[in-house]
Fold:
Amino acid sequence: MRTMTWKRKLSYAIIRPIVKLLLSIFWLTCRVEKIIGDEHAQKLVKKGKPIIPCYWHQMQIFGSWYMKLLQKRGLKIGFLISPSVDGEIPAKIVESWGAVAIRGSSNRTGARALKDMYNTITKDKVSPVTTSDGPKGPIHIFKQGAVILSQITQSPMLPIAFAAERYWEVNSWDKFIIPKPFSRIVIAVAAPHYVDKKANAEMLEQERIGMEQELNQLIKLAKSQF
Structure:
């Protein structure tokens, strides 16, 4: 693992406020016109129990905006972030929001990350956000981790997506979406998915497919509003 040299610390200290500023610009200049299905999240938050928010990796900018909204309503939010030095900037940003940085990699240490998120839910009552096709794709393919986590914690998965009226699409595996300033934004939320504690492998696979289809349908629903 790479060490945090003084040069790296200095560069991260400079970059972190720039990243926060850019996020603030997107959030302030773009207008969230509608949140379809927001009542699903509100009902879950009122119950006072952890949930598992799920959105695609490309939806970070307004996915995190919605997480901050749920946090203001009383939900204790956590984000899974790489334990390497590359995760230092996002970890500090997340912590500055008052959220929990769960330092584990779903890529290199998947079992450990699952254990960490299990403890985060059951012991700390934190709702861990999952970008369910991350960290390296394939794009829009829902991975099994969130389904298993939902089963063993009995916490519901909450599907979330957004669409921007105008946006840039980054040339990356996830086709990361960057809304253009002053764009209208629509967020779509589906009913929570609960996983039977006694579900077998076939049932878990059906849940995985169901979540994948739900997230992709939410994108279409959000886009149809423009």
Notes: The domain at 6-223 is CATH 3.40.1130 (Glycerol-3-phosphate (1)-acyltransferase). The radius of gyration is 17 Å. The mean pLDDT is 89. Helices lie at 6-29, 38-47, 60-72, 88-96, 110-122, 145-153, 201-223.
